[in-house]
Amino acid sequence: MASRGCAGPPPQRPPPPPPQAWVWPGKMLAVGALAGFWVLSLLTYGYLSWGQGLEEEEEGVLRAQAGERPEPSITASSQPHLIFILADDQGFRDVGYHGSEIKTPTLDKLAAEGVKLENYYVQPICTPSRSQFITGKYQIHTGLQHSIIRPTQPNCLPLDNATLPQKLKEVGYSTHMVGKWHLGFYRKECMPTKRGFDTFFGSLLGSGDYYTHYKCDSPGMCGYDLYENENAAWDYDNGIYSTQMYTQRVQQILASHDPKKPIFLYIAYQAVHSPLQAPGRYFEHYRSIININRRRYAAMLSCLDEAINNVTLALKTYGFYNNSIIIYSSDNGGQPTAGGSNWPLRGSKGTYWEGGIRAVCFVHSPLLKNKGTVCKELVHITDWYPTLISLAEGQIDEDIQLDGYDVWETISEGLRSPRVDILHNIDPIYTKAKNGSWAAGYGIWNTAIQSAIRVQHWKLLTGNPGYSDWVPPQSFSNLGPNRWHNERITLSTGKSVWLFNITADPYERVDLSNRYPGVVKQLLRRLSQFNKTAVPVRYPPKDPRSNPRLNGGVWGPWYKEENKKQKPRKSKAEKKQKKSKTKKKQPKAGSFPNCHSGLTHG
């Protein structure tokens, strides 16, 4: 099998040639030569990328074409192009500028030329971070406080929430999503194209095979998960690695869009979430990494880094870059058992320790006033909603109660953040801490409940915060993170409250809950105040109708609105007759096509 690169084979429809305004007077011959070489590279290398992996001479020519010449003179809208890139499960340490052994030259360069957000928070798992980004609201205000949206659940982001793309469309933006949705799909109304996106190309579930795009949620519950708008994208099932495939689609969108008109691109890569898969050539630099999961993870991240480079070059080539704002964020902390590293932070994905919720993030844009800086002000993923709407010259209805703040001046100009606290979450149905009680919470809060809150420098956790070890890089042996090398914490009997000064102790090594009971009480009261505004948890049981075997082998909407409509009451005899007819109509269980065997489970 041929080696796969991260920008992929050429799109089915090649991009239009550069407009005449791009031609430099007196240099027609040089441009012609470049154009000829570009076409040749499409045929030879089979992809629309000008990233790493090419020979130096060829790369230099293509960079001269894309990156080193001035952008075409375009009368840009005052509204900036908004590019939000969300990585999946990237650990806090897993970027070059945080000291990682994994090479991320693109991310390092973009961050160094922009603003690094070093006090930036997300949620500990996928669905919550994505829901808060797209609504600007905490989980307690959307009913998604608990876990993730499972493929078999009749659940999705509540339809009464105005989404970010919907607000941007109101002010003239073209809105496109590429990548992982994971905000529910049981009804057609829940699909991305019904929630504000003009186009959608990607997956609906939380994970799946990077090449086949299949996902098994459980034995007998397997299906295809790649969509083009509202239909299964069978035509794109060519065994293309998803990072490559998504980058190629982004290039197509930019090639066909008028840069004079504002665009919102939400690129939610599947990488570096498990299953750990990557094209072979990305392993070359990581043969020295003994642990196989870490090595695969490193290869995946290198491929992602190259993809970001190709997206950036496409923005420059097609005339978007000078009026664009690029935001890069991870959705949660890394998972050490799947190759990720959050060192020196405590904990991992799925926990409310810093390793689960403190994320890699930066903003890169020619529109920034203070470039090449580090922002240590408090910023949360909910803040992107009002920030981007404000940048787009949009309006937020006064009756909408947001939890996010407009932080553009904080990022661009270095001003103080309007945010002074973050409700990390309150999950009333998570497994209760055995030793938690109202008494331990001074009668203010039941500390058996899993919750976490940050107020200025202070962070309070109650209940069961999750796996709490520190996992140093040297612990990645050939058998996985070796817990004998971890700094393990045995939770004290009766412990259900923790207090840290995160500014002074970002690694959560010194619990101050006994030393400062007054601070504990203040934060417990704040938790109680937030809890009064919470809506009921939405976490319905599994619906057997979700089985892809009942939907042509595809994961997709299964709920029909007519199922809810009340029908006229019938007599008992009519009901019995109806029931017998229904039984006759039901097909046998074996009549549905089986899922592919031997699929990689996400």
TrEMBL record:
<keyword id="KW-0378">Hydrolase</keyword>
<protein>
    <submittedName>
        <fullName>Arylsulfatase family member J</fullName>
    </submittedName>
</protein>
<keyword id="KW-0106">Calcium</keyword>
<feature type="compositionally biased region" description="Basic residues">
    <location>
        <begin position="566"/>
        <end position="587"/>
    </location>
</feature>
<dbReference type="GO" id="GO:0008484">
    <property type="term" value="F:sulfuric ester hydrolase activity"/>
</dbReference>
<dbReference type="InterPro" id="IPR017850">
    <property type="entry name" value="Alkaline_phosphatase_core_sf"/>
</dbReference>
<dbReference type="InterPro" id="IPR024607">
    <property type="entry name" value="Sulfatase_CS"/>
</dbReference>
<comment type="similarity">
    <text>Belongs to the sulfatase family.</text>
</comment>
<feature type="region of interest" description="Disordered">
    <location>
        <begin position="535"/>
        <end position="602"/>
    </location>
</feature>
<dbReference type="InterPro" id="IPR000917">
    <property type="entry name" value="Sulfatase_N"/>
</dbReference>
<feature type="domain" description="Sulfatase N-terminal">
    <location>
        <begin position="80"/>
        <end position="392"/>
    </location>
</feature>
<keyword id="KW-0325">Glycoprotein</keyword>
<dbReference type="GO" id="GO:0046872">
    <property type="term" value="F:metal ion binding"/>
</dbReference>
<keyword id="KW-0479">Metal-binding</keyword>
<dbReference type="InterPro" id="IPR047115">
    <property type="entry name" value="ARSB"/>
</dbReference>
<dbReference type="Pfam" id="PF00884">
    <property type="entry name" value="Sulfatase"/>
</dbReference>
<dbReference type="GO" id="GO:0015629">
    <property type="term" value="C:actin cytoskeleton"/>
</dbReference>
